[in-house]
Amino acid sequence: MADVHHRPDLSSHPDVSEMRDRYARVLGGRDVALMDAPVFLIGLYCAISPWVVHYSVNQPQLATHNLIMGIAIGVLAVGFAVTPTRMYGLSWAMCAMGAWMIIAPWIVGSSPDVGVILNNVIIGGLIVLLGLLCAGLSMKSSRAT
To answer: How far is CA 20 from CA 17, 28, 138, 141, in A?
Structure first.
């Protein structure tokens, strides 16, 4: 049988302040960790959307555009997950990418139909929304530190 004794409180440990500071540094910047997966999934959908909505044949420029934008958004999401303190400054860039996705059917595409327009507007709106949430949360966490 295991001998379990009462362990003393860590508040009397000589390195308690250093351990608290290190713990705060490790967890710092992860307030927006819940945004990583949705951003990645929207980027993935953006990349494959021309083939899901079936406009890759009649809108080849827009299909290529969405593929490249989806990959870029996915790379941003991976960067947010790997180095959050360095990457969340790019949340505003994600907002700009979302705004570009909204207007891209008329600029990149040639006479887009309603399905193409709705697809890009919904994707762009979600990207703008998540970018604003990431930017707001990162500003909130940077003010707290």
So the answer is: 5, 12, 21, 17
